[in-house]
Design goal:
heterodimer; A: nine-stranded mixed beta sheet; globular; B: alpha/beta; six-stranded mixed beta sheet; 8 helices; 12 strands; binds adenosine-5'-diphosphate; binds magnesium ion
Chain lengths: ~400, ~260
C-alpha cells in the first residue's frame, strides 16, 4: 500500500494526524483541593513564571496585572438586557460577593484586592432569556474587575460577558447557580490585538442545577480564562465548553477545574482550538477532582487542537484525581493534530477551491462547540468571526 | 465530443528512500461514452495513474501530457480539474469530520456548476440518487465518510459521480471490498450515470468480477507502470483464467 493510501484509509483520529494520549501525561502537582487560596494579593509571592499555575504563561507580558497597582473603578459596560436579568453595581463589602470561590493565584488575588464595586447580574424567572454585557473602551491602564452572576433557584437564562477593544484587565467572575436553575454563561473574548486579559471564573452549583459555561477566545495578545466549577450539591451538572483560535503571536490559555464534591454530579468538559501562524500558542490544562463525597460521579474531559500551519504550539494537559472508588465514569482525552492534506485533496477533487475547503474542514472541527451555545444569533456571529480568523482578518 | 488523452506519462514519487519512478510511459485515449478497464497486479501503479489525473500533489509528472479536449490538465489545480469535468472515485475515500454529506454535496455542486443548484430540484435529485444506491436517507446528515463502512464509502463516491455529472470518471478499485449485492448496486449506479450523461470511464480494478456488471469497450493490462497489453473484453476473460503471471515473467526477463 502506498503512503498516500495509508493516510487516506485511516480512521478519523489518525487521519487528522492526531496523537491520542488518553493515558497521560498526567502531572498531579499536588492535590488540587489543597492549593493555597486567598483574596489578598500580599499573601502570594511575586510571580516568577516558575509556579505550576504560571509556567506555561508569558508572565513578563503582564507583570503589571500580577504585581502592580490596579485601577478598580467601574468598567465601562453596555448591556443588552432582557426581562428577568438585572444588572447593577454593588459595594465590595456586599454579602453577595465571595460565595463561589477564592483566588488561587496572584493575578486573581490582585483583582480581588483592588476592585471598587462589583457588577451584579441577577437572573430570575423560568422563561428562557438572553442578556449580553459588553465591556469595551477599557484603555491601556491596568484594571481590576469583579462580577457576580447569580441564577435564582429554578431560573433559566443565558448571559454573555463580552470583551472588545483595548484592555489590560485582571478580573474575577463568580457564578452562583441556585437549586434547580439552568444557566448558560458565555465568556467571549474579542479584544484588540494588543490586549491582555486574565480572568478567573468561580462557579458554585446548587442541588440539581445545570451550568453551561462557554469560553470563546478569539482576540487579544494574551488571554487567560480559567474557569473553576464547584459541583457542591447533589445532582449538579456542568457542561464546560471552550473554543479558541490562536493567530500569529497570540497566547490563548485556559485552565479548567471541575471539583466533584457531592453525590451524582456530572461534568463534561470539551475544549477545541485551532492554531494558525508563527508563534500562535494555546494552553489547556484540565483538572478534574472527584472528591470523597462524590459517589456516582460521571465525568469526561477532552481537549482537541487543530494545527493549521507550522510555528505553532499547543499544550494540552489533562489531570484527573479520584478520591472515591464509587464512580460511574471518569475519562479524559487530549489530542493535537495537523490540518490533513488528504482532506483538502478530497474536497478539491470535487471542485471546491482551496480556501473554501479549508473553511469547511476548520468549521467542521469547531462547529461542535458553536452548535452547543444555544443562541442562534451568537452562533451565526461566531461562525462569521471564525471564518474571518481563518482568512487572517 | 470530449476526449481525454494521456501521452507518454512518466510519474515519480518522493519516498524516504529517494525518488521512485512509478509510471513509465503511459499512453491512453478515452473518448466520451467509452469504458476502459485498467487491470493490473497490486503495486503496478494503477492508483498512481488515477491520482495523477486528479492532480494529487504527491505525484510528480516528469514527462508526458494529459489533455482534456486539448486543454493541458497538468497546468490545472486539483479543483480546476474537477470543474473541467474530471472525477476520481477514490480507492480510500477520506473522512471529513463535522461536514455533513448534504453540505458537502451542495458545496461541490455549486463549485462545479458555478452557481447554486435550485433548491427544490437538487433536494429531489439527491434523494433519488441515494435511494437508487440504497443509501439510508439518514446518511445525508452524517459527516462525510465518517464511520461509513467500506461499502458505504464506495456508494457515497458513486452518489457524487451521479450528482456532479463529470465528463470523465476514474474509478479506482470501486469494486474492492464490496459484497455481491453492493457490487451490483454500485455497478448499476455507474451504468446509470453513463446512460444519463454519456461520460467516459476509466475503470481500475484488480479483479474481473466487476466487468460482469460493467461492460468495458477496452481492456488494458497494467504492469510495472505501463500498459503491457490491450484488447477487448475477451482479454479480461483470459486474465480471469491465467492471472498476471505471464506479464510479470516477461517483465522480470526484460529487467535482466
Ligand atoms: N505516495 C507514495 N509514496 C511512496 N510510494 C508510493 C506512493 N504511491 C505509490 N507508491 C509506490 O508506487 C507503486 C505503485 O503503487 P500504486 O499506484 O498504489 O499501485 P496499485 O494501485 O496498482 O496497487 C507501489 O510500489 C507503491 O508502493
Ligand atoms: Mg490501487
Amino acid at each position: 500500500m502506498t503512503a498516500a493510501m495509508q493516510s487516506t484509509a485511516m480512521p478519523t483520529a489518525e487521519q487528522h494526524g492526531f496523537r491520542p494520549h488518553s493515558d497521560g501525561p498526567i502531572i498531579p502537582v499536588q492535590t488540587r483541593s489543597e492549593r493555597f487560596r486567598s483574596v489578598n494579593v500580599e499573601d502570594f509571592a511575586p510571580v516568577t513564571g516558575r509556579e505550576h499555575e504560571w509556567k506555561l504563561s508569558p508572565v513578563a507580558a503582564f507583570a503589571d496585572l500580577t504585581g502592580g497597582e490596579l485601577d478598580g473603578a467601574r468598567l465601562p459596560i453596555e448591556t443588552a438586557d432582557a426581562p428577568g436579568v438585572d444588572v447593577s453595581w454593588i459595594a465590595r463589602d456586599d454579602a453577595r460577593i465571595g460565595r463561589a470561590g477564592t483566588p488561587e493565584e496572584r493575578a486573581s488575588a490582585n483583582a480581588w484586592s483592588s476592585f471598587g464595586e462589583a457588577l451584579f447580574v441577577s437572573v430570575t424567572g423560568e422563561e428562557e432569556k438572553i442578556a449580553a454585557i459588553t465591556r469595551s473602551g477599557l484603555g491601556t491602564t491596568p484594571r481590576a474587575a469583579h462580577t457576580v452572576i447569580e441564577a435564582a433557584p429554578n431560573s433559566r437564562g443565558l448571559v454573555v460577558l463580552r470583551g472588545a477593544g483595548e484592555a489590560r484587565l485582571t478580573e474575577n467572575v463568580e457564578i452562583v447557580v441556585g437549586e434547580g436553575a439552568s444557566l448558560t454563561v458565555v465568556s467571549l473574548q474579542e479584544w484588540d490585538d494588543d490586549a491582555v486579559h486574565l480572568a478567573s471564573h468561580f462557579a458554585r452549583l446548587g442541588r440539581d442545577s445545570f451550568l453551561k459555561h462557554i469560553v470563546v477566545s478569539l482576540g487579544g495578545k494574551v488571554v487567560r480564562v480559567n474557569p473553576s466549577t464547584h459541583l457542591a450539591e447533589q445532582g449538579s451538572d456542568v457542561e464546560a465548553l471552550g473554543l479558541y483560535f490562536a493567530d500569529a503571536g497570540q497566547h490563548l490559555e485556559q485552565q479548567v477545574y471541575v471539583h466533584h464534591d457531592a453525590p451524582h454530579t456530572r461534568s463534561r468538559v470539551t475544549y477545541k482550538g485551532a492554531l494558525q501562524g508563527d508563534g500562535a500558542r494555546s494552553v489547556w490544562i484540565g483538572d478534574v477532582l472527584i472528591g470523597n463525597a462524590a459517589a456516582g460521579t460521571d465525568s469526561y474531559e477532552q481537549n482537541r487542537n487543530l494545527v493549521l500551519t507550522d510555528g505553532t504550539r499547543a499544550d494540552s494537559v489533562p489531570n484527573l484525581e479520584i478520591e472515591t472508588g464509587d464512580i460511574e465514569g471518569a475519562g479524559h482525552a487530549s489530542a493535537t493534530g495537523r490540518f490533513d492534506d488528504e482532506q483538502l485533496f478530497y474536497l478539491m477533487a470535487r471542485g471546491i477551491s482551496e480556501g473554501e475547503a479549508r473553511r469547511l474542514v476548520v468549521r467542521g472541527f469547531l462547529t461542535e462547540i458553536v452548535q452547543k451555545i444555544g443562541s442562534p444569533d451568537l452562533e451565526a456571529r461566531l461562525t462569521a468571526a471564525l471564518e474571518a480568523e481563518l482568512e487572517g482578518r | 465530443m470530449s476526449v481525454l488523452e494521456i501521452k507518454n506519462l512518466h510519474v515519480n514519487v518522493e519516498t524516504d528512500q529517494g525518488t521512485r519512478e512509478i509510471l513509465r510511459g503511459v499512453d491512453l485515449v478515452i473518448n466520451e461514452g467509452e469504458i476502459h478497464a485498467i487491470m493490473g497486479p497490486n503495486g503496478s501503479g494503477k492508483s498512481t495513474l488515477a491520482y495523477t489525473i486528479a492532480g494529487h500533489p504527491k505525484y510528480q509528472v516528469v514527462q508526458g501530457e494529459i489533455l482534456l479536449d486539448g486543454e493541458n490538465v497538468l497546468e490545472m489545480s486539483v479543483d480546476e480539474r474537477a470543474r473541467a469535468g474530471l472525477f476520481l472515485a477514490m480507492q480510500y475515500p477520506v473522512e471529513i469530520p463535522g461536514v455533513t454529506v448534504t453540505n458537502f454535496l451542495r458545496t461541490a455542486k455549486t463549485a462545479i456548476d458555478g452557481e447554486a443548484p435550485s433548491i427544490r430540484g437538487w433536494v429531489k435529485d439527491v434523494r433519488e440518487s441515494m435511494s437508487n444506491l440504497k443509501m439510508d436517507p439518514a446518511f445525508a446528515e452524517r459527516n462525510v465518510n465518517e464511520g461509513f463502512s467500506g461499502g458505504e464509502k464506495k456508494r457515497n463516491e458513486i452518489l457524487q459521480l451521479e450528482l456532479l455529472k463529470p465528463k470523465f470518471a476514474v474509478l479506482d478499485e470501486t469494486d474492492s471490498g464490496l459484497d455481491v449485492d453492493a457490487l451490483k448496486i454500485v455497478s448499476e449506479g455507474v451504468n446509470r450515470a453513463k446512460a444519463n450523461t454519456g461520460l467516459g470511464i476509466l475503470l481500475i480494478t484488480h479483479y474481473t468480477r466487476i466487468l460482469r456488471y460493467i461492460t468495458p469497450d477496452f481492456v488494458h493490462v497494467f504492469v510495472a507502470g505501463k500498459i503491457a497489453e490491450q484488447g477487448g473484453r475477451e482479454l479480461a476473460d483470459r486474465l480471469e483464467e491465467e492471472g498476471y503471471d505471464r506479464y510479470q515473467v516477461a517483465e522480470a526477463a526484460a529487467a535482466e
